[in-house]
């Protein structure tokens, strides 16, 4: 949203980043639910006078934005998905302030999972899982919506059914071709929902929580293949594409999927000394590494998607 000021193009936004809030809900039977969110808000608003004329009369203070996170968390008397909370917050900013034209709310949910003890779900005990659920809700004054959910830190590894062959060989190429290697990555995924207005969002409070679990399941099933036989991966690229394609085919209300899948290398270990070979690699002993890593990402969207 650029505007012209003093003969320049000018774009601005302001907000509060990384506001941390936890919310607990308790049923009459004593079962507790907890979420922990890291909320970032960014407002596009008509407040150019604060930049140009030392006039803050159109500024929503970022401190007020922070307080609003806690006030809205308090107001949510029933458990709700992180998507619905993001939409509620954004809706507040665009409807409460005449100056605000667009609200952008990003939230990362910390993966607190209910503890199971002796096969029994604990009433109020939780442990931290690994991957994080993310959301971005962009809401305009008109009620137009862009809703993108995601997962980050989804670390996965398979010990076989992966290879890499037929790539370009030149004077700098040393990598042998293989049909047997480890495949490890940390998936970052984003998927954009097709709901393009506040009024079209499904009303069920836990709809997007279920979707998140379902999308994750599809991503994992496609990566690993069936439990007993797996599925062969000819490259990270091919597996990534299958994961994105299956997601779009399975979920009609998702228009666009972006996946980032770094290729995290496990190097074969071979060690020799003058006396001979100490360790000979036989698809068994590896050197795990973080860096350098391959970087592979792609976005797949339906023809009519705007992303
Ligand atoms: O699946 C892979 N894709 C690549 O692009 C690549 N490049 C590389 O060195 N190893 C691999 N593996």
From TrEMBL:
Q: What's one Pfam family here? A: Uricase
Reactions this protein catalyses: urate + O2 + H2O = 5-hydroxyisourate + H2O2
The record, for NCBIfam families, names: urate_oxi (TIGR03383)
* Top-level division of the source organism's lineage: Eukaryota
Role this protein plays: Catalyzes the oxidation of uric acid to 5-hydroxyisourate, which is further processed to form (S)-allantoin.
Organism of origin = Arachis hypogaea (Peanut)
Record-annotated residues binding O2? 62, 263
Q: Which SUPFAM superfamilies match?
A: Tetrahydrobiopterin biosynthesis enzymes-like
Q: Which GO terms describe its cellular component?
A: peroxisome
Q: State where urate binds.
A: 62-63, 164, 181, 236-237, 263
What is this protein's name? Uricase
Swiss-Prot/TrEMBL keywords: Oxidoreductase, Peroxisome, Purine metabolism
Primary residence: other
Residues spanning the membrane: none
Sorted alphabetically, which Gene3D superfamilies does this protein's record hold?
Urate Oxidase (3.10.270.10)
Q: Which residues form the active site?
A: 16, 62, 265
Reply yes or no: does the keyword Oxidoreductase apply: yes
User: InterPro entries, per this entry?
Assistant: Uricase, Uricase_CS
Instruction: Specify which residues bind 5-hydroxyisourate according to the UniProt entry for this protein.
Output: 62-63, 164, 181, 236-237, 263
**What processes in GO biological process is this protein linked to?**
purine nucleobase catabolic process; urate catabolic process
Q: Family assignment?
A: Belongs to the uricase family.
